[in-house]
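pasting input
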Amino acid sequence: MSDISTEKYIEEARRGIANPVLQKALVGLQDRFGRGTAEAYRRLPEGPDLRIKAHEIREKAIANLDVLLEILADKIRANGGHLYFAETAQEAVDYGLAVARRNNVRLVVKGKSMVSEEIGLNPALEAAGIEVVETDLGEYIIQLAGEKPSHIIAPAVHKNRHDIADLFVQKLGIRRTTDPPELTHAARKALRAKFLAADMGTSGVNMACAETGHITTVSNEGNIRMATTMPRVHVAFMGMERIVARLDEYEIILRLLCRGAAAQTMGTYASYIGGPRRPGESDGPDEFHLVVIDNGRSRILADPQFREMLYCVRCAACLNVCPVYGKIGGHSYGFAYSGPVGAVVTPLLTGINRAKDLCQGETLCGACRDACSMNIDLPRMLLALREKLAYGDAAWQVKPASRAEGLAYRGWSWLIRNRRLYELGLKLAATGQKLLPHRKGMLRRLPPPVQGWTQSRDLHPLAEETFMERWRRTRKS
Amino acid sequence: MDTRDQINFFRRIRAALGHAPDVSRNASHLFAEGPSPEELQLLDRIRRRTAEGRQALLERLVEAGKPINLSVTALPDVAYASAAIVRLVGEKKPEWGDAKHIAAWRHPLIDRLNLPEALDRLQVPVHATAPIPIDAGSQFDQVERERQRAGIIASFIGVTSADFCLADTATLVMRNRPGQPRSAALVPSIHVAVIHLDQILSDMKELFALLRWDERYRSEGLSNYMSFISGPSKTADIEATMVHGAHGPREVHLFVVTE
């Protein structure tokens, strides 16, 4: 399993908010993609309601996942490809490693893939003495910098051109320039040499289609096409949920994926891969392997409350509208998936208690649901996770996140059902609050343990006269 | 040929879905026996497309190409296309070194361009990507594949055709075949595609209707590698500034022969 640092959510969020480069980049990102995607949905011939249709398609696919995966496996095998079904991240990584060893692989070129971040593919290959090169420009930049992606589609959004110029001078030995075309060309040149020398290419899978027996990958840069065309071996890693039944259904998903991801009508490259090079063809890999990964997904599948999360195609549209992601940035989420999708999927994959801050940090404003290309109700699932954290859940091995909070609410519930005591409490509080610091008639600070409420705002004090008192008084007069 | 990993994997999925863990379920309800009414309409629309209809698609294609930096030029016949390619070869500079080489598909339409002859005056070698004889033996196979790969890598322009072009998104659709390698449209800095006017379709819906239900295309299927290419390679990973030529071609020129 790759690094998980979900426990550092609050610390990382503070750091993100204090980082002016990140703040500027996030504003730009959300401004452009957030609005652009909404506009792109409106421009669909079928209108934004196509998302509802896509939701139905994904619902049907997930309800028949066993059948569809079986068909896909049979077709790819019939075309000369290899299939492996991995229960855990470790199994998936081990399989990839075994393929690499068997083929004496020394250099792997990698197409951007969040699932390979999830399973921790790079560190495992590197530990085996194999050089791994990220080839998406953004991923390449952060790999050179020794960092982690902070956005699903724009992984290096937290770096500006000056950071990248310094990095390239240091790592690629180029003359310093801050011109994006020149920087891009420097990376193009360095990576071309890698593509042509690599023995193995890896990729993710945007969506597979059972009817045709293909996986598809989408990119704008052409790096995935390079990584799946030039090396002798191609290994694709796929979350088991990434499949639809038919080509006409796939068409709808692809159009929405491109719009959700980058407000595009169509990504530059979409490749449909059904197997290795065939006899008579001069290019393409000799071996094609597809690794289908469970890694906790069957548990999500089994729970009707969360099954909907498996409809997700990781387009990242939710990141581009989320007010929380827009302030704290992707690193706070501490795992491969950031933003609202990460706030739901990371607790489900890595442990709800462990990643509790992720779902508690979101606002439930609903922007992610409106932006979702598959029309997934993320706020509903955020609430369901919070419910489990409040009361505990045996099936998911969740312990109540805060005993004190539970007790406090139980006490509150008891108190408001005992009217006299409640009113007495209000009176006491109304008097007691006079001892607290005030500013312009507002309470500036509450005492522990509720000091958090006034950390960044002042509170209205309790009224001298309670509602009930006023009710009685005005009714009399 | 179910392996143990697969058996356990499917047991878990079936159990999670509430089905008997060891029984494969029937899938026929998920697929269609024949085209839907909508698809029949699409197939009919393609079949009945008139010369004016094709011209209108060409105009849409030209428009869709503009925002994605795809240059689309209509030419009356292959001689014009050949001359246009010769002009490009003369004008453009190679990105990786000084020598000008080009690679070209073995394809009926591309063969008619007579590129080796047309480029003889400029002394530009043309690497043809011939199919590799299937019974030639693995030794020959490997040597020939490496020779073709080296030719494509040395080329600064790759000339291909395509199976279709989708007007709405300016998307070239290519299925990998012997003699028509996908790297010719990927590794050279400039990609030139030459197609016939009647290869233009409206959109993905039309394409998929043909691939699913038209016998001419259905039998070949999607091949083991079908590519959609919509304009030149691009990235916006540095401060969201659009740059063309990330890893694939920096320029794509599409010549539509209207003969």
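fyi Chain B has a mean pLDDT of 95.
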